[in-house]
Design goal:
Helix content is 8%, strand content 60%. It contains two helices and 16 strands. The radius of gyration is 33 Å and the shape is flat.
Length: 318
């Protein structure tokens, strides 16, 4: 009896052992696999974001006793950002594009918005909240512009003018939403690649030349803050003053660009947009119409330029 019991144990024990190892995920003679340690994901160094808005407005009158004109307007606005940060290095890029058209009854299609604005800033941290930085800014437009109601003479077009600014300086960031960039070494280049406009000395270039070069100092303040989930304000003020000018009155050597945008999100895809734009450029003369002894005379002089736009429309951001 004892011999039979020993024989049964000799047969069953290897089978039991083998099944137990299989249940544990191992075969006989197989070495246990070491656990693979997954490395934690590194933080994303690049952050991409953007927003697109389409603003529409339409008015129609039929037998309207109080009077009025049928009209339609449309404006497309796009803003893209690509920002990189790692250790002491930062690289920030923004691209703003705008183009708008409007039409009233009895008039041809006209534009009321046209802008290309690209800024790239590379920085290296040298102290808390302070970077040594290099910045490039480019501005131009998409389509020809006219002094309406005269739509037969072009007064501007793509790269006429085009503005390129290159700067070296210090970038102070007291808060995440504010940047103060100061550059004692800034080159400003004004391009007028339309030869007809260049021959007239448009936008401050010397007659028959296509580029005007200036060297001076620049201050750029950028404010970008979201006050609530649905309210955001962006404002940028650029001040440039050239070192070399025959005009000793310093203000007449200055260029000011100030642009502010208030965006209020009403629903997920519906927003209200308010844009304010102020320009003073000693290189640009604005037509001034005067009537002297019954005769209309057109002269040109430096003027403050103001622009205000308000609209409601579709908006998508990512």
């Amino acid at each position: 009896m004892k011999s039979i019991t020993c024989i049964l144990l000799m047969i069953c024990f290897p089978a039991f052992l083998n099944n137990g190892l299989y249940a544990g995920g191992l075969k006989i003679g197989q070495e246990p696999e070491s656990e693979v340690q997954e490395e934690p994901d590194e933080p994303e160094n690049w952050i991409f974001s953007g927003e697109f808005s389409q603003i529409l407005n339409q008015v129609s009158f039929t037998n309207w006793a109080a009077g009025g004109e049928n009209s339609f307007s449309s404006a497309s606005i796009a803003g893209l950002e690509a920002n990189y940060e790692k250790d002491n290095i930062s690289f920030k890029n923004t691209l703003d594009l705008r183009h708008g058209l409007y039409k009233t009854e009895g008039q041809s299609l006209r534009k009321n918005e046209d802008m290309i604005d690209f800024t790239s800033k590379f920085g290296r941290k040298i102290a808390e909240k302070l970077n040594s930085s290099a910045m490039i800014n480019y501005k131009s437009q998409f389509t020809p512009g006219y002094h309406y109601p005269n739509d037969s003479v072009v007064v501007s077009r793509f790269m006429a003018p085009g503005f390129l600014i290159t700067s070296l300086g210090l970038d102070y960031n007291p808060w995440d939403f504010l940047s103060v960039f100061v550059s004692p070494a800034t080159g400003r280049f004004t391009f007028v690649l339309d030869q007809e406009l260049a021959d007239k000395g448009a936008f401050g270039v010397d007659t028959s030349k296509n580029v005007k070069t200036e060297f001076g100092a620049m201050i750029s303040l950028t404010f970008n803050k979201r006050f609530t989930e649905n309210i955001r304000v962006r404002s940028k003020l650029d001040l440039f003053n050239t070192y070399f000018s025959p005009d000793t009155y310093s203000w007449k050597n200055s260029v000011l660009n100030w642009e502010s945008t208030l965006k209020i999100r009403i629903t997920e895809y519906f927003t209200a947009n308010l844009l304010l734009y102020v320009i003073y450029d000693h290189n640009i003369t604005v037509p001034v119409y005067e009537t002297i002894e019954g005769e209309e005379i057109i002269t040109g002089e430096e003027q403050w330029q103001f622009k205000q736009t308000f609209g409601l429309g579709f908006s998508y951001s990512f």
